[in-house]
Amino acid sequence: MKLSVLSVLLVSVAQAAAAPWRPREPRAAGSKRLTFNETVISAALSPSSISVQWIATENDGDYVYQEEDGSIKIESIVTNRSQTIVPAEKIPADAYSYWISPDLSAVLWATNYTKQYRHSFFADYYIQDVETLETVPLVEDMVGDIQYAEWSPSGDSIAFVRGNNLWTWSDGTVTAITKDGGPDMFHGVPDWIYEEEILGDRFALWFSPDSELLAFLTFNETGVPTFTVQYFMDNQEIAPPYPRELDIRYPKVSETNPTVKLNILQLSDNTVSTIPIDVFDPSELIVGEVAWVTDTHTELAVKAFNRVQDESKVVIVETASGETKIAHERDGTDGWLDNLLSISYVGPLALGSGDASSAYYVDLSDHSGWTHLYLFSTSGGDPIPLTEGEWEVTSIVSIDQERELVYYLSTQHHSTERHLYSVSYRTFEITPLVDDTVEAYWSVSFSAKAGYYILTYAGPSVPYQELYSVNQTAPLRTLTSNAALIEKLEEYALPNISYFELEIPSGEKLNVMQRLPVGFSPDKKYPVLFTPYGGPGAQEVSKRWQSLDFNAYIASDPELEYVTWTVDNRGTGYRGREFRSLVAKQLGKLEAEDQVYAAKQAAKLDWVDSEHIAIWGWSYGGYLTGKVLETDSGAFSLGLLTAPVSDWRLYDSMYTERYMKTLSTNAEGYNTTAIRHTDGFKNVEGGFLIQHGTGDDNVHFQNAAALGDTLIGNGVTPEKMQVQWFTDSDHSIRYNGGNVFLYRQLAQRLYKEKNRAKKEQHQWSKRSQDWVV
Prior knowledge:
The protein is an alpha+beta fold. The chain has a domain at 3-46 and 487-766: Rossmann fold (3-Layer(aba) Sandwich). Helix content is 15%, strand content 33%. It has 13 helices and 43 strands. The longest helix is centred in the last third of the chain and has 17 residues, at 738-754. The chain is globular. It is an enzyme of class 3 (hydrolase). This is Probable dipeptidyl peptidase 4.
């Protein structure tokens, strides 16, 4: 493609975004530049926001919140009146989190917190009476070993998990529901892979709306291979003689997965029934979602997937009889099926040919080619579309049964944006709740009865929050204005952000976000850093407020002044099923091609220093960086790989097989997607850096170790290769100051790359105060 054609293309920018070769002036008029401390270490220049725990009371709009002094209050967001229910001096010591009972009579406190995996943690739990303020332990002999606890909707009982067994508490009486829980058997909480890849949370139990029944999953890890993570320091100042070893049942590609069973507990007599979900072979079954589709306890929906997640079946359980039926099926063998966790009950309806007594729920599906809202009957039959078009619904945010409305967020204006709408499941009328002709990224939180909502403008400008009633269009009041931040930012000269679409040779258009350095001049030459994530269904290019983070820092530091390009390659999200599914069975191939193509187009711009174009990614982005270097394209001069996957055989089965299928059916695909060709690593002018935490339970350090061995064994020289491990750090790399060190190292490598062949050193001493932690 000729530069003139590229220029014409880049004019087709998302609305109000400036063309990249004619950048807007910085939004702030000051002269200060962002520093390392302000962007990486401190959050002083971050927008503030409020989030509330809505509660169902006689008056819709009540919520619970915690004051800065620690006291717990109930406040009406409508009247602004508040009531203290637990004063600060009565808060339990070492409190981590709290949940008020639905009847407002007690508070459940989690204390003595210990992190486990991404979502899960261990804690002690206490119940505090709101009237007397007396606090009693949930279990007398607890030692920071309770995994999860949850109030019933009626507020008179608690289900909790300890030692991988399910227990109940009711009026001070604790009852063991299961007794065979242990290292290989999980009741009511997910094992590692279900927490990380399927449920995305730390619980696997669900009370019925009337508190009569409790559905819960049981995971059996017998036969699942074990991966051992070593902790060399184990939070001690001096290393113990032997590392602590954590054995995790971690199924990798084509290895044995945990089996899963659905159980229903009758809370009145503590009897448990196991409900067979036999729509797939037990060794192949994945339970992706469990949701009550009733106002009482009559029906339960279970979304089941096959092992490689390209077939799904929604099973309806009739709880009185224990009978099951398949209500809906989906074939996604043209790619994969995402587990969107979006089943939402709406109630009994008489629509079309549906049974008048049938219950309905809404769910998201992309069977039309785009993810949209559909109305499903629990009796089966064809779903009824509520939305349609070449755009996608991204989330269901509330169901208003009284007004018969579904509230949702979608990309109707542009895939990088989110706007709020309602649709009637009676008349099918769609109503925007925001001006959907203006570029914006909105999020929302509805009250318990959906009569009020907090609307958050999340970008592209400085965020703010307003309170609305569904009965009027004007806001009731502003909750968060971030006026102080706006005033503070006027002291700064900020990097300039714009958005545009880049057409690739195959005809698809890629979303690109560009950040130009402070004081940008088209008469100068600037180094460029590409910052992809690029994973299936992911999105990095959005019109959210872009945090003043490391990328903003390297665009502000006068000794760095990097342009950054973030390119959402083929396979990323919110562009339709066809765009997503292009990468099926061949991860890393098209994604790398797209990043290379974008870099070559950037290199043609007059103000780009084409000899210094770097790429940096974390996790999937680190893997993609490796695949880009492997192409040996010459488009990039430096590669920075943080916590990368290097071979999909080394990653977990449920994520990898969703996109790559099994080894037996796609052996060649696994061979080509692994990072094994080393010429590109030998030839990249500025070399490359690999960073990884040794305590990473997600993307194991094994990936970096194996990649390093491949590179060394194939003759990559020390001048090209730098490797940095972070002792005991997990995937976020934060242990013992690791995060700050990581970003310092990245900044130094970028400085070295910018000045490659100049043999200069970054003069950190000029701004020594900038490195104070």
